[in-house]
Amino acid sequence: MRTSSEGYLRVSAKPIPKKLKHDAIVEVVFEIRFSTSTIPEVLVGRISEFGPWNDFTQSSLPLSQIPLVMRQQDPNLKYQPVFALTNEPQKRAVRIGANSIAYSRGMPYVGWDLFKPEVNEVILGLFTKANDLQIERLGLRYLNALREDLHGIRSLSDLDLRIQIEDEVITQSANLNLNFDRKTDTACILRVATPDIVLGQVPAETAVYVDVDIFTGQDGFLTSDRAFVEDWVERAHQKEKEQFFRMLPKPTIDSLREN
Predict the structure, then answer these.
(1) Residue 95 domain flag
(2) Are residues 101 and 148 part of one domain?
(3) In a domain, 105, yes or no
(4) What is the mean pLDDT of residues 231-253?
(5) pTM (2 decimals)?
(6) What's the structural domain count of the chain?
(7) Residue 249 and residue 154 in one domain
(8) For residue 244, what are the CA distances in angstroms to 6, 82, 229, 253?
(9) Beta pairing class for 134-147 and 100-106
(10) Which residues pair with 146 in a beta bridge?
């Protein structure tokens, strides 16, 4: 990777395979933050009855015990979910709050051709169930676990990335966070870490954890245009792929490509 004079990372022209022999994706999350005139309890009820998810298991989350007024006043709680719809066999979940909805898929990842229609269901459900909807933030996040046996990645040194202090190259116990394309509608935070740094459970044999988070980064972002949201998802997915594959050396990409 190289950094431009403006402080942004230049995107390299590496090939982006449509599919890998062995996927590295642990979880993918699509999130919408919004405001609406619909009462939160009513919105949760409407979303719970939405067709694609009406057979999901319903459960309240711990934050539901905190009064809405307190949650709305705390910026750390305002967008947190209070209710969940889950399909455990398929590793699918919809988490809903007064001002947010997040849809996630766990391992094994089903591929973009199947995941994108599910994301469109989230967009459709929110736009049809929430009154006076204003979208305040969009996010698409992919969490990846790279392994030696599946991906040929043994450590940070196998990535197309160098972390160096003076003459010492850092290859173990590291956590790197890169922010770029800020103030655009496809801003990105790229997090690269060794598994000892990552909080929570990571797959066995993980050598490097790569978290690619694409989001609307400009101040005051606001839209009520459903078509814009659907188009943004496509652009965000393309941006995520570019940022993930730029981390991998070209020979590694070639060896992982599924013909």
Answers:
(1) yes
(2) no
(3) yes
(4) 95
(5) 0.91
(6) 2
(7) yes
(8) 21, 31, 22, 11
(9) unpaired
(10) 208
Tell me the CA distances in angstroms from 180 to 174, 187, 193, 198, one per residue in order: 20, 6, 18, 22
- Residue found by looking up tokens 């403006």 in the block: 6
Residue pLDDT, tens place only, 71-120: 888 888 899 999 999 999 999 999 999 999 999 999 999 999 999 999 99
Task: Supply the range of the domain harboring residue 213.
Answer: 144-259
The residue type found at 204 is A
Q: Is the pLDDT of residue 147 over 50?
A: yes
Which of the four pLDDT bands, split at 50, 70 and 90, describes residue 2? very low
Residue 208 near residue 194 (C-beta atoms within 8 A): yes
pLDDT greater than 90 at residue 12:
no
Angle, CA of 162, 30 and 121, to the nearest 5°: 150
The secondary structure of the chain as a DSSP string is --B-TTSPBPPP-----S-BSS--EEEEEEEEEEE-SS-HHHHHHHHHTSGGGTTSEEEE-GGGGS-HHHHHH-TTTTT---EEEEEGGGTEEEEEETTEEEEEEESSP--HHHHHHHHHHHHHHHHHHSTT-EEEEEEEEEEEEEEHHHH---SGGGSS---EETTEEP-SS-EEEEEESTTSTTEEEEEEE-TTT--S---TTEEEEEEEEEE--STT--B--HHHHHHHHHHHHHHHHHHHHTTS-HHHHHHHB--
- State whether 235 and 176 are in the same domain: yes
Q: Which of 191, 190, 143, 192 is nearest to 171 (CA)?
A: 192
Measure CA of the first residue to CA of the last residue in the chain; give whole Å: 27
Give the integer Cα–Cα distance in Å for 202 and 195: 7
